[in-house]
Amino acid sequence: MSVSTVRTNKYSRRGLWGAIVAVIASLTMTSLGIWQLQRADDKHQRLTQIEQRQQRAPLSIYDLPKNLDQVEDYPLTISGNWQKEYIFLLDNRINNGRVGYEVLIPMEMDMRFVLVNLGWINAPKSRNDLPDINVQELPMTIQGTLYLPRRNPAITETANSTDTWPMRIQQVDIALMSRFFGSPLAPFVVLADPDESSKFVREWTPVVMSPQKHLGYAIQWFALAAACIIVTAVAIRKGIRSNDIK
Question: Record's superkingdom (predicted)?
C-alpha cells in the first residue's frame, strides 16, 4: 500500500469522525433552538392569559372551582382576620438590585386560611437581622391576583419547626408552611394589588424571562448550528483539496 493511500485513508477516517461530531453538535443546538421557540410560545400564551383574566371582575374565595388552573391570574377579593403573629419571609427577593424579602401572612375567613403576599421589603445589612415589619394597620379587605406557587425541587434548604416568627423561608411550599402554621393553608397565594400608600413594593413578574429573550436565545442556537455545519464543510473541503495536491 502506497504512502498516499495510507494518508488518504487516514484523512477519510478523520473527516468521517469530524462530520459525525459536527452533525451531532448541530442537531443538539437545533433542538435547543426549537426548545427555546416552544418556551417563547408558552410565555406568550401565559402573558396573553394574564392580560385577558385581569380584565375580569374580581372573584370571591367562595366561588373558586376545584380546578384552580382555570382561575389562576384572576383578580380576587378576600376579607378576614390577619394572623399577624405568623409572618413568613420569602428570602432572596431582588428589587432594583436590592436584596430583600417578600412578606406573606395568612388571613382567616370562616376557618379558611389563605396566604397573602403583601410584597417586597428591604433586608437589613446584617444577615443575622430580620426586617422590622409593622402590620398593625393592614386593611381587612385585600384585592389581589390568584397565584399558584410552583415548588422548586432544587431548593432543599428552608425553614424548620424550631425557627421563630417571623420565619425565613426559601420558597413558597404550601404543605410545609401549613405544618409550621399549624392549620391547612389554601393551595394558592393572593398577590396583593399595588398600593402607593403601602410600604411594601408590589411589582409582580409572573413571567421572569420574556418571549423576546427566548426568541433571541433560539436565534443564537440556530446560528451556532449553522456555523458548525459551515465550518465543518469548509474544513473537509480544504482537506480534500490538500490531499489531492499531495
Answer: Bacteria
* Domain encompassing residue 225: 3-47+210-245
b (16+ CB within 10 A) / e for 70-104: ebbbbbbebebebbeebbbbbbebeeeeeebbbbb
For residue 118, what pLDDT is reported?
Answer: 93
Asked if residue 90 and residue 148 are part of one domain, the reply reads yes
Please, what sign has the CA dihedral across residues 190, 188, 179, 171? negative
Q: Which own/partner pairs from 7-16 qualify as long-range (CB within 8 Å, at least 24 positions apart)? A: 7/243, 7/246, 8/243, 11/239, 11/243, 14/239, 15/236, 15/239, 15/240
Give the residues across from 104 on adjacent strands.
88, 117
In a domain, 218, yes or no: yes
Q: Are residues 139 and 233 in the same domain?
A: no
pLDDT over 80 at 112, yes or no:
yes
Composition of the chain by helix, strand, coil, percent to 5: 40, 20, 35
Q: Per-residue pLDDT for 181 more than 70?
A: yes
Neighbour-count burial for 186-219, b at 16+ CB within 10 Å, e otherwise: bebbbbbbeeeeeebbbebeeeeeebeebbebbe
- pLDDT at position 98 is 87
- The mean predicted confidence, pLDDT, of the chain is 82
How much is the pLDDT for 3?
44
Residue 37: inside a domain: yes
pTM: 0.72
- Residue 159 clears pLDDT 70, i.e. is over it: no
Residue 162 lies inside a defined structural domain of this protein = yes
